[in-house]
Amino acid sequence: MKKKFLLVIISTVISLGGHSAVNENQTADYNVVPLPREISFSKGGEFVITENTRIAYPEGNELLKKDAQFLRDYIADLTSLRLSVTTEKLKSGIILKLNPKVQNKEGYVLTVNKKGVSIEGSTAAGVFYGVQTLRKSIPVGKEIAAVTLPAVVIKDEPRFDYRGMMLDCARHFFPVKSVKQFIDLIAMHNMNVFHWHLTEDQGWRIEIKKYPELTEKGSVRTSTVLGHNAKVYDGTPYGGYYTQAEAREIVKYAADRYITVIPEIDMPGHMVAALTAIPDMGCTGGPYEVCRHWGVMDDVLCLGNEKTYEFCKDVLSEIMDIFPSKYIHLGGDETPQTRWKECPKCKKLMEREGLSAGKLQGYFTNRIEKFVNSKGRSIIGWDEILDGDINQSATIMSWRDTEPGAKAAKLGHDVIMSPTTYCYFDYYQTHNDKERWNEPLLIGGNLPIEKTYSLEPVPAGATPEVAAHIIGVQGNLWTEYIAYPSLVEYQVLPRMGALSEVQWTNGKRDFEAWKKRQSRMLDLYDLYGFTYATHLWPQRIPVANQDKK
């Protein structure tokens, strides 16, 4: 009797104190990030997800099959539950289906009653966002063997069609695995665009088969400056690039998550790496060197040289073959006119076309845009392209605050708001000098989370016609000082959570309420091992930062 009694005590201590028993039933919480537009609790009775619950999708619909598999995998990540996917017509379970009555193409209706769960959308993308909401509603814990879902009807749709994040893989290169993890974060936050910055003065990062020298010579710098452009270098060659096969792999990975990859090939500035490979496209003819330091360089493409236009068209032809996106980003920012004013070829072009140096870039942009348009695509450019006489069909990405975007919208351009003052995630997250002492070395600036959350993308007093041209919002991560995937994560998390509500949620926003909801998102970050900033939660230590015992 004593041995049996002792065994019961030991087993009870192990199961309760060690949290190893897989028998807990926890309740879902629909207050997720981004906050759904309408959450209506009902009296239809709760539904409990157990190991016997199945996820159904219509037979023959491969996209909804994929959505069902995502949901299955998400629930397996979050809990001990291993659900099965089926095409059977279930009387009870989780059912994914299309419903043309859901008007917004990315909208969904999530319904829970005692019979089960249904997630409906007019497209598979809409259903996917319903899956994300259900995923984020479920608590995290490997001891969880059942999840109670309160009866509810959630009707939701995004405020903006374009909800993006940009990652600069040119200043520093990140492997395919890291890029996919970045895409996973985009999906988790209901975003639908991955803007991929691929070329810079400091490195050319995408294979172009017609010009192999771009990656042979242009992808490697001999060393990298230390600190804020000190005259001290690390003496270590740095390089890397994506093959076209790898780029296609990333495009598919993103597309599976209803995310469009928009490539950026920056032109006519930020081209020193290309000029290093093909020097006769520069005004001076070189020699050039892939830049070892940061900043804006005087050496840009020679716009009086017809070879420049042939080169750009060749490169963009291969880029458009890899990337099926509607938009191709041409950059167009930070392009000094110094060399053009001195270059005989450029001066000859300006004289022939009756242009000033200030209008030469507009001439270039219009020529390249016509080529892109001839392939059935459209261009995006940073707001500097407005300084030239560009076509109204060009979409403007407003980064020098929101005023250029407001101006562009009034001129009839579509606009993506991405101002430094709200959306540049390479900036510090605090202005406190004591806190900054404990921060990684960054480019500077100050962008606390609450500032990002406060962004209103539509200009005050905008007419309905002007407001309609504000098609979206984007966060940017430039990587001059960000060389590691863990620092990428730290800089964007949890600011992506704040930005996601600017992009998705329509109506008055409440920062304190968001902060409470975001604290639950941190559990998801921990689950997947992401590094994140804890300025708003100083007592919290991310799992990724905890000492491994």
Provide the fold topology.
Elements: H1 2-17, E1 24-27, E2 38-41, E3 47-49, E4 54-56, H2 62-78, E5 84-86, E6 93-98, E7 108-113, E8 116-121, H3 124-137, E9 144-149, E10 152-156, E11 162-168, H4 176-188, E12 193-197, E13 199-200, E14 203-204, H5 213-216, E15 220-221, E16 238-239, H6 244-255, E17 260-264, H7 272-277, H8 306-322, E18 327-329, H9 338-342, H10 344-353, H11 357-374, E19 378-382, E20 395-398, H12 403-410, E21 415-417, H13 420-423, H14 433-437, H15 449-453, H16 464-467, E22 470-477, H17 485-492, H18 495-504, H19 511-527
Parallel strand pairs: 1-9, 4-5, 4-6, 6-8, 11-12, 11-22, 12-17, 18-19, 19-20, 20-21, 21-22
Antiparallel strand pairs: 2-10, 3-9, 7-8, 7-10, 13-14, 15-16
Helix pairs in contact: 2-3, 4-6, 8-11
What can you tell me about this protein's structure?
The chain is of the alpha/beta class and 549 residues long. The strands form five sheets. Strands 17-12-11-22-21-20-19-18 form an eight-stranded parallel sheet. A hairpin with a 2-residue loop joins strand 13 (199-200) and strand 14. The chain is globular and about 80 Å long. The model is unreliable at 1-20 (pLDDT under 50).
Task: Offer a quick outline of the entry.
This protein is of the alpha/beta class and 549 residues long. 35% of the residues lie in helices and 17% in strands.
Largest sheet: 8 strands, parallel
The best one-word shape is globular
Mean pLDDT: 95
User: What is the count of DSSP helices, taking H or I runs of 4+ residues?
Assistant: 19
Radius of gyration: 26 Å
Number of strands: 22
Q: In oligomeric terms, what are we looking at?
A: single chain
Strand residue content: 15-25%
N/C terminus separation: 39 Å
Low-confidence stretches: 1-20
| Helix-strand category | alpha/beta
Strand order of the largest sheet: 17-12-11-22-21-20-19-18
